[in-house]
Amino acid sequence: MSKKPLTRDEQFLAKAAGDDVPMPKPLTRVQEFLERIVDRLSGSVTDETLDNAIAPLNASIAQLSRKAIQFRHGKGTFTATATGTNVVWQYGGQQVQGGNCTFDVKSDNGLIALECDTIESLTIQNDAKNKMDLSDLGGKITNTLSLHNCPNITGDLSDLGGKITSSLNLNNCKNITGDLSDLGGKITSSLNLYNCKNITGDLSDLGGKITSLLSLYNCPNITGDLSDLGGKITNTLSLYNCPNITGDLSDLGGKITNMLNLNNCTNITGVYSGAKYPKDVNISKTAITSADMDANLINFAASGVKSGAFTATGMKRTAASDDAVATLVANGWTVSGLTKEG
């Protein structure tokens, strides 16, 4: 027994199947192809006639399923890299197939287009002429997005759809707004929001998943505690001028190998210890006591790491760390900013 079609698409399909139902007027491209199928099947149906009828429909559906991204760019050179399947770049009648493209944009409001079946990553760097808004991406990027030093890009973190799972780099995209919670706590490798001073949120919004790099340099509205990071960061942690963040250096897990910048994190306390030590350390204008500063210097000296920089402007130490400072200097370190008590 035939079921009654409930939608306009089902009416076309029911008609094609031979049911005695009225055929509606097509309102969409897909319905136009369905109407053509019905017309072709008005006679006898064979496998060949059915295949011939549905071929244009399949082609249309495949084309409609492709992802499309468009954005504006000022006059000058545009260079980008995308990772995905069947990537095609377009500008001004030019077309480039594949992930890498370079266009010479001739106008101050050129339209760049990217089409693909899937897109995992997009990289555009050092491009002051880029006028993209994050909403132009349609929440389609799933793995990595790097718009490093594209200062005229606008938009909100929520425009990304909370889909990025590996890395997000919006270094010096100073007009970006949004909250860390908009990222969905999915990023696992690196997050760079250097000088994105309008960003809000709490470190706990990141889910304690980031393992390599976290830069919230000059993001003064960020709150949270160092313990929210889960002690997983191994390369770089930069929280310069994040005065609302609390926590103890021991919360970092002692895994950082490159940079630790907590300058002007006025509520940070404690002693760093662990298996790994960063070579570039700035713990200026923190709440670290002179006794804990001594302990930090002693631990860094004992680490055996060579040729680093230990900066603690406005901070104090005592004679208890004299030997540690001497050892660091002998190992090629620069120790600066400290005042010795007593």
Tell me about this structure:
- This protein is α/β, with parallel strands linked by helices and 342 residues long.
- It has a domain of 57 residues.
- Helices cover 18% and strands 27% of the residues.
- The strands form 3 sheets. A 12-stranded mixed beta sheet has the order 5-2-7-8-9-10-12-14-16-18-19-20. Strands 1-6-3-4 form a 4-stranded antiparallel beta sheet, with no helix packed on it.
- α1 packs parallel to α2, α2 runs antiparallel to α3 and α4 packs parallel to α5.
- The longest helix has 19 residues.
- The chain is elongated and about 100 Å long.
Instruction: Tell me about the largest β-sheet.
Output: 12 strands, mixed
Q: What is the number of strand segments?
A: 20
Total helical segments = 5
Q: What structural class is derived from the secondary structure elements?
A: alpha/beta
End-to-end Cα distance? 97 Å
**Strand order of the main beta sheet, please?**
5-2-7-8-9-10-12-14-16-18-19-20
Helix content percent band: 10-25%
Percent of residues in beta strands: 25-35%
String of helices and strands: HHHEEEEEEEEEEEEEEEEEEHEHE
Sum up the overall morphology in one term: elongated
Mean pLDDT: 91
Calculate Rg over CA atoms.
29 Å
